[in-house]
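JOB MANIFEST
job_type = single_chain_structure
chain_count = 1
residues = 260
[input]
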Amino acid sequence: MADFDVWARYYDLIHEGLPGEAEFFVGQAVRLGGRTLELGCGTGRIAVAMAMSGAEVVGLDNSEAMLDVCREKLATVSPVTGRLDLTHADMASFDLGEEFKFIALAYRGFMHLHGVEQQLVCLERIRSHLKEDGVFILSTWVPNLAILSGGGAGDGEDDYRLAGEYDLGESKGLLRHFQRYWVDMFRQRMVEEHLVEEVGADGEVIGQETLPLVRVWTSSREMGHLVRRSGFAVEAVFGDFDCGPLGPESTEMIWVLRKA
């Protein structure tokens, strides 16, 4: 079972994406034309929108449960003027036997690669699937010292903080989302534990589940070394989805890459 299988039921409620992110990646797919590959497509927040905008898309994810949600979503939307084909595979070891004009790795998906070796293998796989005139764009988190220094909660239930409450609609109650995390500065790793509670209309807790998540952060300097070592040329690095410059106040870094 993939790590994100247990997330599938709750993912779209908790993760709405980043402001301007979906519009940016959909716009790039439409602008570049040709076949698009989205790695870590999950429940299809971006991939479905690409297909609805006319793009020919392959969505790849290692969680079959997340892809099932994407299939359900795709079946309910219209019109879909493009196409979305879904593939169950690992972005660190995939081989699709074709090249793409545009490859996207959105929503900080690079952080789910937990070591340099895995990162390099993923980048090699991406390069081998990119057309000679193709573009690869990845977005990832800019490490935030305030967040990193705030990690290190204990093991008690009181260490959770309330991260959000979501209305389940039709008098079904709500979902409460709690979170705690630990930081391993040496490995540049955040180990997160998410707790979700389903609360009935009468206020009683009717279900509870713990959702794990491990993410690794990468500095802009490290990312530069990784992509160049993997045979990419850097066309641009943005600090937001409006294509503003990367700077000290940026929370995201968006790398626009081509084959060197």
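[summary]
Residues 153-157 have pLDDT under 50 and may be disordered.
The first helix runs from residue 11 to 14.
exit_status = 0
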